[in-house]
Amino acid sequence: MLIKTPDGALLFDTGTGGPPAGSLMTSLEAADVAPEDVTHIFISHSRFDHVGGLAKDGALVFPNATIHMSAPEWEFMQANEQQAAIVSAISDRVETFEPGAELIPGLLTAVETQGHTPGHSSYRVTSGEESLLYIGDTMHHFVISVEHPGWKIAFDTDEPAARAKRQALLAELAESGESIYAYHFPFPGVGHIETAGDSFVYIED
Ligand SMILES: [Zn+2]
């Protein structure tokens, strides 16, 4: 997800950095945004499919961007030896925040959703009366995770916490009708949640 503001461009996670899986750079080019134009990157969590695009061959891919992630997630990432190359490339550019912190007044707030990883964060973007919640990897599949929120995915580091967050978030989203952006749902991954029987359903917008 990319948000253009009068002062810059905000990017939410970076994909793997591909190829073959990542097409972020071609998508940015299509949106007329050069890597140098990205001013802030907000990371939901530090798994490779979300942070792999931050660095290439030890160098920053987005040289002017501040990289934001929650303090517990940065701690988790630094302790992960498999991420050592990315950690050393980005460490000067990382700014941590406390889970749930307001990040850009009136525009962007972090929403604490740990469980998938210890510092996993969702992000709420607000514009006037409207808002959209980027749910990161609180849900992975648009049918399974939504209709069976009790089913875990193998990558959840804290299974009971991830399940509880997913169920609570779905109930909250069904009640509010708020728009969501879901990283792993079918492109473009924008929709909302409704109740269906004693469970939930994802409706594309
Ligand atoms: Zn993911």
User: What is the count of distinct domains?
Assistant: 1
How would you sum up the global shape? globular
Do you know the CATH topology? Metallo-beta-lactamase, Chain A
Q: Order of helices and strands, N to C? A: EEHEHEEEHHEEEEEHHEEE
Number of helices: 6
Determine the strand fraction and express it as a percent band. Answer: 25-35%
**Can you give the helix content as a percent range?**
10-25%
Task: State the end-to-end distance.
Answer: 16 Å
Assigned CATH class: Alpha Beta
**Helix-strand category:** alpha/beta
Q: Which molecules are bound besides the chains? A: zinc ion
* Low-pLDDT runs: none
- The CATH architecture category equals 4-Layer Sandwich
The overall pLDDT, averaged over residues, is 94
Q: What is the tally of beta strands?
A: 14
Structure overview:
- Strands 8-9-10-11-12-13-14 form a 7-stranded mixed sheet. Strands 1-2-3-6-7 form a 5-stranded mixed sheet.
- It has a single domain (2-138, 178-192), classed as Metallo-beta-lactamase, Chain A, CATH 3.60.15.10.
- The chain has helices at 24-30, 48-51, 71-78, 84-90, 144-147, 159-176; strands at residues 2-5, 8-12, 38-42, 55-56, 59-60, 66-70, 94-97, 102-104, 108-112, 121-127, 130-134, 179-181, 190-196, 199-204.
- The chain is of the alpha/beta class and 205 residues long.
- The relative contact order is 0.12.
- Bound molecules: zinc ion.
- Zinc ion binds at residues 47, 49-50, 137, 183-184.
- Residues 47, 49-50, 137, 183-184 line the site of zinc ion.
